[in-house]
Amino acid sequence: MEYLLVLIVYPIFVILASVFGYFLFRKWFVFPSITLIVFMSLTIFVYNSSFLIWTLIYTMLSLTFSLIIDYFQKRELQY
User: Fold this and answer.
1) Helix, coil or strand: residue 47
2) 65 and 18 Cβ atoms separated by less than 8 Å
3) pLDDT tens profile 5-27
4) What pLDDT score does 79 carry?
5) Are 28 and 66 in contact (CB under 8 A)?
6) Interatomic CA distance for residues 42 and 51, integer angstroms
7) Exposed, middle or buried: residue 55 (CB in 10 Å: 0-12, 13-18, 19+)?
8) Given this model, what pLDDT does residue 77 score?
């Protein structure tokens, strides 16, 4: 069950939450920070230290999607 969470559910949640978080806060750096805090808490309280690499991967995924959305939003405003 944890395998499905790590490889399917958490990435989908991170992508959707990053998109929603960008439009909610209008800043590209807010939701990746929240993602890092949430998954770091999960690493400490639910999983063990081997989950730390997934925390970094999810944070980078959130950062990537936030920057992509920010790029397209700024590009749309130019035209």
Assistant:
1) coil
2) yes
3) 888 999 999 999 999 999 998 88
4) 67
5) yes
6) 9
7) buried
8) 72
- Distance CA(23)–CA(25), nearest Å, equals 6
Phi, psi of 27 (to 5 degrees): -130, 135
Tokens representing 11 are: 């990435």
Longest CA–CA span in the chain (Å) reads 48
pTM over 0.90: no
Tally of CA atoms within 13 A in the half-sphere of 36 that contains its CB: 9
Three-state DSSP class for residue 79? coil
Q: Angle at CA 54, nearest 5°, toward 51 and 64? A: 160
In the structure encoding, which two tokens stand for residue 61, read together? 């995924």
